[in-house]
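Archive transcription. Copying these from loose printouts into the bound notebook so they stop getting lost. Printout 1 of 2:
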Amino acid sequence: MKAEIVAIGSELLLGQSTDTNSVWLSNELASMGIDCYFHTSVGDNKDRMAEVFRSACDRSDYVFCTGGLGPTQDDITRAALAQVMGVELLHDVSVEAMIRAKFAHRQTEMPQNNLLQAQVPAGAKTMDAMPGTAPGLICELPNNTVVYAMPGVPFEMKEMFADSVVEDLLARSGEQQLIGSRVIRTWGQSESKLAEVLDPLVAELDQNSGSFRATLAFLASGVEGLKVRITVKADSDKNLRERLDELEQRVRKELGDTVFGVDEASMESVVLELLEKAGLSLAVAESVTGGYLAGRICSVPGASRSFLGGVVAYEQSIKREILGVSSGVGVSEQTAIEMADGVRTALGASVGLATTGVAGPAELEGNPVGTVWIGIAIEDDSFAKRVTWSKNREQIRNLSTLSALDELRKVLLSKT
């Protein structure tokens, strides 16, 4: 079954509103085993809307439309659908009665404009669920494509989909497949390198089809690392979970310690979990990251079980007086090590993690912009690692924060 989603509203094209409905619908359709191939946004123009509907109906079995069912002059989804169906709009007295009843329940007078919402394309069915004053429409076209038109208001659309659309979809299909995804989160490799390493697995999956179809996709996510999304289609929850588990293990085997988490796990939540399991506490000293590191750690609920606190030492005298840094150089391997050791001692932590570097706009002490040292002090071991970024100031701070956490993650894993 092929589906696509059409989002109606000029406000979407003008950037005044974000289309969250299409994302939500795609996820719901995937869970039902329905493949969604296209998302389209179109403004409040009847001819352009009709053109989009015709294209969608030519290539898809189901079209899900949101928006344009309100009571104002620019709510013309009903008229556009009637144009595509080649029928007239008819006044539905039962819908009018329901609209009037809703206003009566609110003890407010119904504006005459709301009668526009009782206009229904001839042959279309209205949905039973009607959380607002806009009825949803089920329109069957001569080529057997079905259009489900729902309001653009998210809570109305979601209720209508759950209460009316799902039932109709299942009745038409007679069966339900399942689609599930799992996101493997990585740090430290380029997208091209990940694709090269996983190319044999991707080729293998491309050759397979049938009930247990699976695919891999690569998702860039800015300073959050790269994601490998595994998507599986199966005929039962059990088979879906087993296939996802199997493919996750194969991806982990190929990518090694570049994998830091799955789905919603963040780098900081993974590090805190490792610290708690090991019974270790953490303190951080920050120069170049300027509080970003502590901020990310504190964003995790329960961080205080392992995180003691941090010191933002931007000026060299602060590094000397509070962290005991002996070097007069602000950006160096020795400084990063002494910062990590110093904050661990000052706060009484098991582990010290430090960042120092050059975020720009100009080089510092002969170090070019993007030079960063990450220091770690744990048990009897203290060391530092140098990383470099060809990015702007904000990106350098964010990337350095994630890299510092990743270096600590790898150290903690090596000690378990």
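Printout 2 of 2:
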Amino acid sequence: MLGWQFSEYTPDDEGSIFDKLLKLFQELLLHTSGNVSEALSWLTELDRKYHLTSDEYGMADFIQDLMDMGYITDGEASGMPGYVPTSKMEIALRRKALEEVFGKLKKTKLGNHSTKFDGKGDELASELRPYEFGDSLESIAVSESLRNAHINHGIEQFKLTPEDLEVQETFYQSQTSTVLMIDISHSMILYGEDRITPAKKVALALSELITTRYPKDTLDIIVFGNDAWQIEIKDLPYLEVGPYHTNTVAGLELAMDILKKRRNPNRQIFMITDGKPTCIKKGKKYYQNSFGLDRTIVTRTLNLAMKCRKMSIPITTFMIARDPYLVQFVDQFTKANNGKAFYSNLQGLGEFVFLDYKNNKRKKR
């Protein structure tokens, strides 16, 4: 019989079930701030209710596969009870968040922020120019230089002079220092709304984007509640909110201190928050007001936004809420800094309303 004969395609049940369970498990792991036992307990309950597994592949098989593939490990070796996530799981969470939040980004060469300036940079261009004293040997266009020597001096009396040399033009590449600020105040879980999990997703996505696609850049991460302090990238999946107010001023002051130490003209701040500052520090005491937008607190916050603007430090705010009065404050804050803002509701992290005051742009992404 000529041609092809097609039969019904039956996907590998074990593999497809594992992939489906892994996605759910990763999602639950963020909700439980890295508590593997609690995440597995929730997953078992979902399995009981929605029959996610089969007779051939159950939860015990899934847990064993997680261990065999290096996603989780026994915590006894590190003095932790039960299972704990591995570094492989932490990387997988960042990559998953990057795909979910910024899945439409186009690939670019690693570590490259293109600029319009030419000179003794890193990126080769197609243009050639005459050799100048101080040009590196690596930039000499050998074929073109030899051709010039043949044309200028002939083949029989071949010689190569500086006037024959041509070099390949290069472009400058910029390097950026970024501080990522994450709000861990109590309002991030207030009134039954889980805002910290979407915030962690955005933070994981941004950190993965910067560290993998722009490895020459620097990234510092801070969290802020009543005060502000630095954390490591590996700590992101395990962030939890505390009984804190929102001291945006403390976060901005720490971010500015960090960026002052970076010998880099390109500096920026990414801030992930639900919008409302409710706390500042006066001397050794805290001044707190959770009702509405306190004028004293707002003024201090806006003054820092303008100070960052004078220091050429743009602030990009990722707003995990759509409350009208909170949006109004973030608009005011972004305008004072001449920065950018992304607004997202809790259900649609992949679609942001983008506001760019510097270029007067507003659109959906």
